[in-house]
Specification:
The complex is a heterodimer of chains A (about 700) and B (about 220). Chain A has 3 domains: about 160 residues, Aldehyde oxidase/xanthine dehydrogenase, molybdopterin binding domain (Aldehyde Oxidoreductase, domain 4, 2-Layer Sandwich); about 160 residues, Aldehyde oxidase/xanthine dehydrogenase, a/b hammerhead (Aldehyde Oxidoreductase, domain 3); about 300 residues, Aldehyde oxidase/xanthine dehydrogenase, molybdopterin binding domain (Aldehyde Oxidoreductase, domain 4). Helices cover about 25% and strands about 25% of the residues of chain A. In chain A, the strands form 7 sheets. Chain A has a 7-stranded mixed β-sheet, with helices on both faces. In chain A, strands 7-17-16-15-8 form a 5-stranded mixed β-sheet. The N and C termini of chain A lie far apart (about 70 Å). Chain B is α+β, with helices and mostly antiparallel strands. Chain B has 2 domains: about 120 residues, Roll (Ubiquitin-like (UB roll)); about 70 residues, [2Fe-2S]-binding domain (DNA polymerase, domain 1). In chain B, about 30% of the residues lie in helices and about 15% in strands. Chain B is built from 7 helices and 7 strands, in the order αβαβββαβββαααα. In chain B, the strands form 2 sheets. In chain B, strands 4-3-7-5-6 form a 5-stranded mixed β-sheet, with helices on both faces. In chain B, β5 and β6 form a beta hairpin. The chains are: A alpha+beta (about 700), B alpha+beta (about 220). At the A-B interface, α1, α3 and α15 of A face α3, α4, α5, α6 and α7 of B.
Chain lengths: ~700, ~220
């Protein structure tokens, strides 16, 4: 049985070190092709006519003017008379025309009559939800009543996170071309190259095997691009009708209105402790919306095993459909839990770092890891030197504060198969139906194959982004790195073994005694008996070596799950303007066996930056009157800029213990804690809790006013 | 309202470009209106008010030193002309209203959001796009620095950011971190590559100065 085990640190030439991503050159030169950049001869441009009302019934649709317009090649009614529409922006009519502007003109000429129905787009105040609130979901663990009875201190608070969007820079879309009657070629912006095709197959009534998916690069996904959307399928329908390929990509306003939203969560929390800081009990009532589906109960209390009683209401609203947003439900649960605990620490007049450490056994089974990470983060932040009790006593209107948080995530590898080919000319390719969201998937695959074959990284050609390659899972749940690294490792080990068999006679050695190191095949421990990689591959004659390797998903010795992670924020708050600035941000993260350090650090920086976005700026703001999104653009749906992120310091936990765990995903865990760490830092700075994210100036000023003064 | 030197970097007061275009769709567009950006007027515009459009009109663009003639409606933006009518797809359409910088090109030494300029306005000027930064097959020092400091993730904002960095460093060869944070505030990234970009810009500044010092 071949030995696929990850090599120890002492035996690694490449893994765990910093390497530049292999698709960097094409990305920085503008050569990288995205779905938006694809063109085909005769291609038409698709547009969607969208409903302007949050809740309405379609009475009539008149597309006659559009159909007569020169350049319009196909029109379909998606939701005709009688259909009930549940959010502003839902699809009514699809149009394909020879030119993008003609398609827009045609869309404007479509006349739709609606009967408006009552809508609900706000859920922050649950008392106004009426019958839109579900029956409560209730759950109890341990004996919270006993805890509250024994408590010396009970802290109460309200905490909330509004609906936000994904705002991927490449909006959703696809280019769809029929190849014959029942074969579709789709360039689609997706997180799931191998699986997204089935979303076309069913509505178009063609076999899934007849859908060819291609995607070299994707301009962001963050959980919003796993399946086909109605506009993709309708574009394929238009393409069939017109006999021409149709490209359908969303405008920014459509992207923000309909192509992705993270459910909101609000909670009223009571949490109790003894005088010495021992946490005793948790009681919360929470609610939230993900549009028509409501929102699932957040996993609170998060990370801490506290006896609890929970009640959760899902509220259905007319805001559009929710989608998985990087670490679904975790940022919400984390913010509510860590803020409630920080408020409890403040009530106890304890430093929250000491408070967390005192109760750390309640974070079992990761208590030791969290302790180690908390201490490391505290050292990086100079926590003990900088921390002060609630309310910065420094005179003036700039107040400084510190906050902390801990988080967790799974991240075990998904099913993946890699086909590794070693060619007689020495070239090596990896083929897998995976995708690189910018996380560095291509680079990870190349590093693992190169390490295993004793080659430099640039000797490996990585072929992904095509569902004709062996299947690899969608990139969600931080499962990609575990899946593709395990399949690549196995395929590379097996391909090498086949090569060594061919080479062994020439070196007069047992193939089992050969190794691939530094671009050579040599007898183990005897570099004098060796040949170069090229010479070795030439022994293959005319036949390449091909080997497939799999990660089957589930239990797999090469990948694992369950990380911790600690983050600390230092902020300043201007109490005159309410503006919060990030000064310094510290993140300590374990990630098992780390393959690509540079791109891993980039995941950390990126997730923290995204976290700063939802902490300070982002909110899908809905208009109560019209039920429409008020800020479907990038002026008012604000993302952080290059000057908004302060100084971010990242530390990856790398040691033997982590190596022994196997590879674990990283895309999601570091985006979980920023809201809580920043929210706690603001409370520490100004001396009062700002209950709801984003911590926009008006919310900070409202909290200060409630406190009764500026300082 | 006084004419701003660089109005296309800000949303126009009162009327968005899209609204302007849609209202203009059924009307002919007079040349003096479309020259209201500070960019040079099409030939002959000042002498007689020549009516352009709404049909396609011939225009000439000089992109990365190469001359192109194309036939577009006057409402076509420079970004659309580059991406759709030509094959310069490096500049991306993201916000489509001059907010995010993903479509940044350099016109006359100045960084411009190509989504907020009409193609007809961009005639007679040198347009530099991301594709023009590494024509000799060798990457520009800024591009090298972006790779070295991992200043790209999904890469969708990257071409616009690289071009914006070029315009920035041309004007600020010795930037401080604070200069970088202020000067590149017009470009947005969703993956969060700013940490790498800051380092890349500072490092490219050093390399480029070194290059000049060594002749």
């Amino acid at each position: 049985m071949a030995d696929y085990k990850w090599p120890d640190a002492s035996k690694r030439a490449l893994m765990g070190k910093r390497h530049s991503r292999i698709d960097g050159p094409e990305k920085v030169s503008g050569r990288a092709k995205y779905t938006h950049d694809r063109k085909l001869p005769g291609m038409l441009y698709g547009r969607i006519v969208r409903c302007p009302h949050a809740h309405a019934k379609v009475m009539s649709v008149d597309t006659s003017a559009a159909e007569k317009m020169p350049g319009v090649k196909a029109v379909t009614v998606i939701q005709g008379p009688g259909k009930e529409i549940q959010w502003a922006g839902d699809e009514i009519v699809a149009i394909a025309a020879t030119d993008e502007n003609i398609a827009r003109d045609a869309a404007r000429s479509v006349k739709v009559v609606y009967e408006q129905l009552p809508h609900l787009v706000h859920e922050e105040d649950i008392s106004k939800a009426g019958d839109r609130a579900s029956a409560p979901e209730e759950k109890t663990e341990g004996d919270p009543d006993k805890g509250f009875k024994e408590a010396d201190v009970v802290s109460e608070g309200t905490y909330g996170l509004p609906v936000i969007t994904h705002c991927t820079l490449e909006s959703h879309g696809s280019l769809n071309a029929w190849e014959g009657e029942d074969k579709l070629l789709a360039y689609i912006s997706t997180q799931a190259v191998s699986d997204v095709g089935s979303g076309y197959a069913q509505p178009l009534k063609i076999p899934a095997a007849n859908v060819h998916i291609v995607q070299d690069h994707v301009g962001g996904g963050f959980g919003s691009k796993f399946t086909t959307d109605r506009w993709d399928v309708e574009a394929a329908v238009l393409a069939k009708k017109a006999g021409k390929p149709v490209r359908m990509v969303l405008d920014r306003d459509e992207e923000l209105m309909v192509a992705g939203a993270r459910p909101s969560t609000f909670a009223k929390v009571r949490v109790a402790a003894k005088k010495d800081g021992t946490i005793l009990a948790w009681d919360s009532t929470s609610w939230g919306t993900g549009g028509l589906t409501g929102a699932g109960a957040p996993p609170i209390p998060y990370c801490w095993r506290i006896p609890y009683r929970l009640k959760h209401y899902a509220i259905t609203t007319n805001i559009g459909a929710a989608r998985a947003w990087r670490a679904p439900n975790h940022p919400q649960a984390c913010y509510i839990t860590m803020c409630a605990l920080e408020d409890l620490a403040a009530a106890l007049k304890m430093d929250p770092l000491d408070f967390f450490l005192k109760n750390i056994e309640m974070t079992a089974p990761r208590a030791n890891l969290y302790k180690e990470e908390l201490l490391k983060a505290a050292e990086m932040m100079e926590w003990k030197k900088k921390w002060h009790p609630r309310g910065d006593p420094t005179p003036g209107h700039i107040k400084r504060g510190l906050g902390l948080s801990i988080h967790t995530w799974g991240g075990r590898g998904h099913p993946s198969e890699n086909r590794v080919t070693i060619n007689p000319d020495g070239s090596v390719s990896c083929e897998l139906g995976s995708q690189d969201l910018g996380t560095g998937t291509r680079t990870v695959i190349a590093i693992v194959a190169a390490e295993t074959l004793g080659l430099p990284i640039n000797a490996i050609t990585v072929k992904i982004g095509d569902n004709k390659y062996p299947r690899s899972g969608g990139s969600g749940g931080s499962t990609t790195v575990g899946g593709v690294s395990a399949s690549t490792r196995r395929a590379s080990v097996d391909a090498l073994a086949l090569l060594l068999q061919k080479v062994a006679p020439a070196l007069n050695a047992d193939p089992a005694k050969l190794e691939a190191v530094g671009g050579k095949i040599q007898v183990q421990g005897d570099p004098t008996k060796s040949m170069t990689w090229k010479q070795a591959c030439a022994k293959l004659g005319a036949t390449p070596v091909v080997a497939s390797g799999k990660c089957v998903g589930g239990r797999d010795e090469l990948t694992n799950q369950g990380v911790g992670g600690v983050q600390m924020a230092e902020v300043t708050v201007d109490t005159e303007t309410g503006i919060v600035r990030i000064e310094r941000f510290v993140a300590v993260q374990d990630v098992g066996y780390l393959i690509s350090l540079k791109t891993a650090e980039s995941q950390m920086y990126g997730a923290i930056t995204m976290g700063i976005g939802y902490s300070l700026y982002e909110e899908k703001i809905m208009d109560e009157q019209t039920g429409r999104m008020l800020n479907p653009n990038m002026e008012f749906y604000k993302l952080p800029g290059i000057g908004d992120i302060g100084r971010i310091m990242v530390h990856m936990v790398m040691n033997k213990e982590q190596d022994d765990r196997g590879v674990i995903g990283l895309g999601e865990p570091p985006v979980v804690s920023p809201g809580a760490a920043i929210g706690n830092a603001v409370a520490n700075a100004i001396g009062i809790r700002v209950p709801n994210l984003p911590l926009a100036p008006e919310r900070v000023l409202a909290a200060l006013e409630k406190k009764g003064g500026l300082s | 309202m006084a004419r701003s030197r660089n109005p296309e970097t800000k949303p126009r007061k009162g009327l968005s470009r899209r609204a302007f275009l849609s209202r203009g769709a059924g009307l002919a567009i007079a040349a003096p209106i479309v020259t209201d950006t500070g960019l040079p007027a099409p030939q002959g515009a000042a002498a007689d008010v020549k009516i352009l459009g709404p049909e396609k009109i011939p225009i000439a663009l000089r992109v990365n030193g190469k001359a192109h003639t194309l036939s577009v409606e006057p409402r076509v933006t420079l970004l659309e002309a580059l991406r759709t009518h030509l094959d310069y797809t490096g500049a991306k359409q993201v916000c489509d209203r001059g907010t995010c910088g993903a479509c940044t090109v350099i016109i006359g030494g100045k960084e411009i959001n190509a989504c907020a300029v009409l193609a007809v306005e961009a005639q007679g000027k040198d347009i530099l796009t991301i594709e023009g930064l590494s024509t000799t097959g060798k990457l520009h020092p800024i591009q090298e620095a972006f790779i070295e400091h991992d200043a790209t993730q999904c890469g969708f904002c990257t071409p616009g950011f690289v071009v914006a960095c070029k315009a920035f460093l041309d004007k600020n060869p010795n930037p401080t971190m604070a200069d970088v944070e202020k000067g590149l505030g017009g470009n947005l990234c969703r993956c969060g590559t700013y940490v790498g970009i800051r380092e890349a810009v500072l490092s490219a500044a050093k390399t480029m100065k070194g290059g000049r010092a060594n002749g």
